[in-house]
Amino acid sequence: MNGYILYFSVLFYGIYNSINIETTKNQLMLSVFFIAITWYYILTWMDKEIRDYDDNTDVFDKAYHQVSNESNNWFWSYQLLALVPIWVLTIPISQYHVILMGFFGAISGSMSLWLPKDLPKIGLNWLTYLALLSVYAVLPAMKHYAQHSELNHDNNGDDNYITFGWITWYLHAILMLLPFINMINIEPINNLWLHPIALIIMIQHWFCLWSIESPYLFDTDNKCATSISIDAIGSTMLICYLMSDKSVSSIIHYLVKSILISPGATLALELATQ
Known about the structure:
Strand content: under 5%
Order of helices and strands: HHHHHHEHHEHHHH
Mean pLDDT: 87
Strand order of the largest sheet: 1-2
Number of helices: 12
Helix content: over 70%
Low-confidence stretches: none
Largest sheet: 2 strands, antiparallel
Number of domains: 1
Radius of gyration: 18 Å
Shape: globular
């Protein structure tokens, strides 16, 4: 219970501070829409399935497992996990509550409130770059250990599930710390070094596509996975709008690019040339 109190306290803190940003009415309505529809599916999933498990199975552990263990579910989870590390670097530390709202609420809902007219110029240091590399290095492992573990009443003896849990915690810790890591005053690097990051994301993106086992990209029976799919699609559309010159042709250009190489790789390439 204490974990839920802390989770939703951070979420409401992020939402409260984020809505105080100078935003348009349309941005606010879009943010409310994405958060509402995302959490509708999450709460529907919790109400339907969590009763099948005892108190030893954490609801959030189960959620992350279910959106990672199947290839179709993992495709959408990967889109978000590959996009977020690059996205958080575009947000100044003074707006960190926007990141909290995205992590604990919905990435698309957070992006709706933080859409500057132009992508900001970012400066990376070597430690941030190594942290980014570590994120994309462990993502395939996260999928592997989720696929080879089973969620049941007694996960203590399942080494695959334990490893999956540690990877999940590591990813979230790094993503939360990235803005602070990038503040460390050490030797900066040229943003062109984001090109190899984009290549790694693109390769993993195509591997996810190749691994899809069903012609149906949406797992409509898994409400938790549906919430991730909606969040990933919404985030992709918003990133394409952010990177474009706001014309229809430009938005379509970035959308096609995102489909081909993934939203994360598209954003990385865009930031590399800022």
